[in-house]
Amino acid sequence: MKTKALNTIPLFFIALLFTVLFIKCNPKEDIPTDPPNILYIMSDDHGYQAISAYNDKLIQTPNLDRLADEGVIFRNSFVTNSICGPSRAVMLTGKHSHLNGMLDNSTKFDGSQQTFPKLLQNAGYQTAMVGKWHLKSDPTGFDYWNILPGQGQYYNPDFIEMGEKKQIEGYVTNITTDIALNWLNNRDTKKPFCLLLHHKAPHRTWQPDTTYLASFLKNQYPVPDNFFDQYENRQAAKAQRLSIRQNDMDLVYDLKMQDDENKVETRFKWRMDHTARMNDAQRAAWKKHYDPIVQRYLKDTPKGDNLYLWKYQRYMQDYLACIRSVDDNVGRVLDYLDENGLRDNTLVVYTSDQGFYLGEHGWFDKRFIYEESFRTPLLMRLPKGYRKRGEINQLVQNIDYSATILDIAGIAIPKDIQGISMKPILLGEDTEWRDALYYHYYEFPNEHMVKKHYGVRTEKYKLIHFYDDIDVWELYDLEKDPNEMDNLFGQSQYEDTIKKLKIRLSGLQEEYRDTSMGKSGAS
Predict the structure, then answer these.
(1) Fewer CB within 10 A of the end CB, N or C, for the chain?
(2) How many CB atoms lie within 10 A of CB 167?
(3) Do residues 473 and 359 both lie within one domain?
């Protein structure tokens, strides 16, 4: 009976059924043939812990969450070298630091080399770079650029537009977005665009817009469980100088405890004047907010652990207020795309140049391969035809950005790019993916005194080698010890695991052609 009934169905409906099934099973079917626009938004030192799509205990970021809700959120996104300039060079080139030449912040980026904006430009894209550049050389591969010199300033900042420096009144996060939107308004609409929009915030010294100075003042933030970490069996962690519990985090320079009589001590011979670039209205708002905090501190100065906890709360209040402006301005740009009919044909990426410590291990800053520094937020809203939504759990890294953007733009990926295109993942396809990440940090000695090190991270384990003036290994079981408190290296029950991880590490160094550690390589 069933066979007979099937035979009575008109062939038209059978054909229609197979057409629907084919379209459903073919994720590439409705991808537009025109190359999509690319909007790459990157902040500086924005820890994933301070985006509510990742963690809602510190701040609500509705506009960044909008990207996650309407697109994808990467749960395992990492960098190759957690420091500003080198991270940006990796993003541009798709190559590890030892190959693109930008090992640390003292290096000048070689702008003559291949970058993905140049390849997009050669393929007919209109390209622009706005905001924090921090690579010492002028941008190349861009039809338009307008950048902050060096680290840039929060208030009334200088910008360098196509080689001409000018000061612009206002707050840097708002201004950067203003410049970007102005460029979008005046671009050649016959061409696809690639816009790199790079925010200074929330980089140290975390100077919020006057609009948000008091926004987080009454909040008390949860103190990380390992805030009072004593770094047992972790020699490099003990030697660092990025501790909130020491004067590495300065009361005046970092926490704005600037009083007229200079009663608050600072470790700097020069005293930071946070209001130096401000106009009268900005300075008045700043002093109205900070002067009472300074006076309360002088009247009842906390001591010992109470001082450290007080510093942590002050740090978080200013840091998160800077992020509030970033989130607002991401919303401005998303609204612009939606209101101008650009939503369906634009890839929107939001990330940070690296992660950041928000009190974990008692620290601020980055540099270490430990999770909070190594891991970075990555959110994407995809062009029409890319059906992937929600969480992505594959191990991705910032060497992958170039390959992914080129692939989505329909441009052949040069063989010397070391990253992998995430396009198959974004299409929802089943694809083989890497099972391990390689990391290498070089900048030592410097202010924060984080030792040179390299390492491998798999889904379960992390193996690290600190070298140069020390020779120390560390091993962490990330499933049992996600806060990386218990160094397992040297324990007999992990000998086989260490042996396998060292082989994997050597294999990655060979694959990425990294011989820069010399005789201290894995063995």
Answers:
(1) N
(2) 10
(3) no
pLDDT digits (tens, 9 = 90+) for 383-411: 999 999 999 999 999 999 999 999 999 99
Indicate whether 381 and 480 sit together in one domain: no
The reported pTM is 0.93
Q: Are residues 332 and 308 in the same domain?
A: no
Number of domains in the chain: 3
Sheet holding 436-441: strands in order across? 436-441, 453-458, 461-466, 472-477
Query: How are strands ordered across the β-sheet holding 37-43?
Result: 164-167, 158-161, 144-148, 126-132, 193-198, 37-43, 346-352, 378-381, 72-74, 390-392
- Pair (290, 415) in one structural domain: no
Residue that the structure tokens 């061409």 belong to: 191
pLDDT per position as a tens digit, 423-445: 999 999 999 999 999 999 999 99
The reply to whether 281 falls in a domain is yes
DSSP H/E element including 319: helix 304-339
The CATH number of whichever domain residue 102 belongs to comes to 3.40.720.10
Q: Which of 372, 398, 381 is nearest to 344 (CA)?
A: 381
**Are residues 64 and 185 both part of a single domain?**
yes
Q: Are 410 and 393 in contact (CB under 8 A)?
A: no
Quick one: tokens of 485? 């408190």
How many Cα atoms within 13 Å fall on the side-chain side of residue 101? 12
Do the Cβ atoms of 64 and 330 come closer than 8 Å? Answer: yes
The residue with tokens 């009454």 is 218
CB atoms within 10 A of CB 455: 26
Q: Rounded to an integer, what distance in angstroms lies between the CA atom of residue 208 and that of residue 171?
A: 9
- Opening angle at CA 373, ends 372 and 376, nearest 5: 80
- The residues, ordered by sequence, that sit 6+ positions from 462 with a Cβ below 8 Å of its Cβ are 369, 455, 456, 474, 475, 476, 478, 484
- 328 and 259 together in one domain: no
Task: Kindly report, residue by residue over 319-340, the tens digit of the pLDDT.
Answer: 999 999 999 999 999 999 999 9
Write b or e for each residue in 152-163: b if 16 or more Cβ atoms lie within 10 A of its Cβ, otherwise e: bbbbbbbbbeee
Quick one: 425 and 445 in the same domain? Answer: no
